[in-house]
Amino acid sequence: MMYNEVYYFDGCSYTAGHDTVSTDRTWISILNPLVEKDGNYNLSNPNFPTGGRRKYPYYNESVVCKSNQEIYQDWRKNLPALEKLDNVKVVIHWSHSERTTQDKNQGFITGNNHWTEDLATAWWDGFDKTVSFMKTIEDDCKIRNIEVYFITTEHQQLFELARNYNDEVYSQRLDSLDQDIIFNWPMRKLQNFNLTPVTRDDLLILWGCTGLPVSWCRVFGEDTADDLKHIDYRSQQRFGAQIKDWIVDRNKDLSYWIDEGAVDKSYFYDLATWKNNYRSADPEQWVPTHWIERDLNEILINTVIRPNADYIYES
User: Fold this and answer.
1) Separation in Å, CA 179 to CA 1, 122, 184, 191, 243
2) Of 107, 108, 304, nearest to 202 (Cα)?
3) pLDDT tens-digit series, residues 61-95
4) Are the beta carbons of 162 and 170 closer than 8 angstroms?
5) Potential cystine with 12: which of 37, 66, 105, 172 (Cβ 3.0-4.6 Å)?
């Protein structure tokens, strides 16, 4: 079936929106704007069950707290319908890799369990699954001449770090991924982070100070949402504009936008920047609404970075 464009979106709250204000104002609205007119394809076309009043026919499978396993399962469900269409653009913002269908917040993040190193395996196992899903969908799309665009929540070097905890098949899949289809790859290597994490604090710093949404906000001087975890709905307009231009021109990936403006790109890679510019230790001056950010603030306050990238946690 011929359409000028058909979009397929999927992701977690970074795509779906995390509250009632942001739901209709996420970055996908820049790629596929809301419209107020009669005759829109989506109003009566049964081929687009998750459609609505937008410029182009589309699927939006994104859901708050969605895991990458669920993203992949929905892809398999929808692929038979998508392959019958023309001019499909698949845009997936991958979620946090530690999430599973059953457990959306693993123990090393919540701290609700007594800490053991085994809790970290959920993250490393998750990277293995995420890379497998990415590679399979990439191949599915290329075989069918479907355009595919990925955004990863996690920093590229964390995928590299996961080689130490997974088998050779993982490394082969990672090496075979086409980086041209990933908006925020390649990335500069991390600096001043502990890349041999053992404790929950080690992992939470890697999790909280390398994720794309909040790092992107800090680099480009844009607002985060009140929880300091998501991109504010107004800032999502700029993020969406970058993604839209990248879809038109693959050369305009994240590196292009970093080089275009006067930005502090060290938030993408340097723990020292986070340590020196996070937030005040005074809870009356700053009270984040998300429990991860509250924990992370305390950890960073007690982190001392030493010369030559050595640092300690003060008790």
Assistant:
1) 30, 25, 9, 22, 15
2) 108
3) 999 889 999 999 999 999 999 999 999 999 999 99
4) yes
5) 66
Q: How far is CA 116 from CA 58, 63, 121, 214, 295, in A?
A: 44, 30, 10, 28, 18
| CA dist., res. 259 & res. 89, Å (int) | 26
Token pair belonging to 313: 């946690």
Cβ-based neighbours of 99, under 8 Å, separated by 6 or more: 12, 65, 66, 67, 68, 69, 105, 106, 126
Q: CB–CB of 2/45 below 8 Å?
A: no
Contact 204, 296 (CB under 8 A): yes
pLDDT in tens, 213-271: 989 998 998 888 777 678 887 889 999 999 999 999 999 999 999 987 667 899 999 99
For residue 59, which phi and psi values (nearest 5 degrees)?
-110, 140
Predicted TM-score (pTM) of this structure: 0.88
